[in-house]
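QUALITY CONTROL LOG
STEP: pairwise intake check
CHECKER ROLE: data steward
CRITERIA: each record must contain a sequence immediately followed by its structure tokens, with no blank fields

ENTRY 1 OF 2
RESULT FIELD BELOW
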Amino acid sequence: PDDYIPLFDTFLSLVQSQLAAPFVFQSFHQKIRHPFDHYAFGVNFLKPLVDEARSTVKGERYIQEVVDHLEKGDNVIFLANHQTEGDPQALSVLLDKKYPNLAADMIFVAGERVITDPLAVPFSMGRNLLCIYSKRYIDNPPEYKTAKQLHNKRTMELMSELLSEGGKCIYVAPSGGRYRVNTQGVVEVAPFDPQSVEMFYLMAQKAGHPTYFYPMALATYELLPPPETVQTELGEVRSAKRSPIHLAIGPQIDMEHFPGSDHPNKRARRQLRADYIWQQVYNDYKNLGVSK
């Protein structure tokens, strides 16, 4: 539609600005709303792609629990799947009308790609981000590995400080990057990394505020599918199309009591916890009715 053209023109202008003078993200980036509202821009840019009439949100009783926790100054960590670059904006499209501050104030654990690719940066500038280097890219190039590890350590320290302040809502995908289709053409919910889950749990225990964990399942793949294979260089092809999107929030996760929580081996116990949480997300994702 014609009213989309000015938005796309704005996008091209923002990309040109990135090419001329790339924005440098700090370990903790807070969304930029002035003088240009990057948050509203990102949401408005994605909206025409979303078939809102056919989109769904499940688990609203748990979303209200989350809102209540945050209003009391407690923390919430969503352990989620991840499908597209636009997942933060998709959450806003689904939640902003009924829960206007939840997605806007959410802090996303973000990888290197969305803070370095000029096509992604204008949208990333509108979100609260804890910027890390994922395992997938931390060894490339090898001469920067140590610096990247130190950066990640600093980011984790900042996350611990944020949780200590209380009232923080953090989204993290414990499997790493975006999910891709398998050989059968099915979009997978990749396994969760037990070390990642354990790290967040340990930080939550040190926060000084109650911190609650919830599973989140997102189905946004059709909007902007990632490349079929992982590529280390920038410049991936993006092919977008209009589609409904779906979200499910499950009941609070008991991080101490789960099948196998009495296992004597610590490493095995962590793996069983990660598998248990993954199963919650997988079940919710399957119940969205989008998996083949």
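ENTRY 2 OF 2
RESULT FIELD BELOW
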Amino acid sequence: ELVGERLLTTPAHYAYLKIAEGCDRPCSFCAIPLMRGKHVSTPMEELVKEASSLAKKGTKELILIAQDLTFYGLDLKGEGKSGRKLKELLERLSDVNGIEWIRLQYAYPAGFPLEILETMAERDNICKYLDMPLQSGSDAMLKHMRRGITREKTEELIHTIREKVPGIALRTTLISGYPGETEEDFEETYSFVERMRFDRLGIFNYSHEENTHAYSLADDISQEEKQRRSDAVMESQMSISEVFNQSLKGQTLKVLFDRLEGDEFVGRTEYDSPEVDNEVRVPAKDNYVRMGDFANVKITDASTYDLFGEVVKS
């Protein structure tokens, strides 16, 4: 019942702030432009006003979402010079009193606005976290998917992001078994994952979406083969995640607590988004914290996807 309730409602201490609707990207596998239309940015003043209202109601974390965050502002007229405005939006939201974390989800790699990296590095309340779905590590697949970027350019972007924002946690998602994906294409993606060492990663088996460009192609990879490839990538990712988590033992991290689960309080670091990423667990019997509050936690142990620790008493 608790789990069901958590899935149905968003706790008051964090909120998803949709900054745009729709998408102008031509990705071959995606039906979002068909369902949602072209990209439409929400005016900045409306977003700042909504963020201020949420903060007054107790929201401490804003999770910025859109089909493509990085396109924000290109379509806005009459708000100064034209162009991407994600940097300006981040600065405005960062100035809202009471917002302690701002998290970016669903950034697009092609045409990534590098100017936001300086803001992310400078502002303490912008999480060192970026969710950037990449879909594949194979040049052939990226071309067929109409992603507008090569693997080499993707790797250059990842290195730049990590250089400009030290300690950032990168999350990505991939597609397994896109039409025509050969074993060589898969091996390129597998090698890409091992080289890039993403902090967080998910992979989904390709599914045919009607009216998309890819729907005209033969869905020629069996479900079993799609799953085999997904499992192989996730097995590699598990070891990467384990090493990352073990490196945090002994450190004290700022944690936002989301819920009480059995005899444990469960929270997240700035490197983790709700529902999809790692969690921090502390024993309830020894550590009293209130849901929606921040606390410093000394990490005492780690597993593949969980950290365990003790609240540091102030």
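INTAKE CHECK: passed for both entries
DESCRIPTIVE NOTE, ENTRY 2: Residues 102 and 126 are 5 Å apart (CA to CA).
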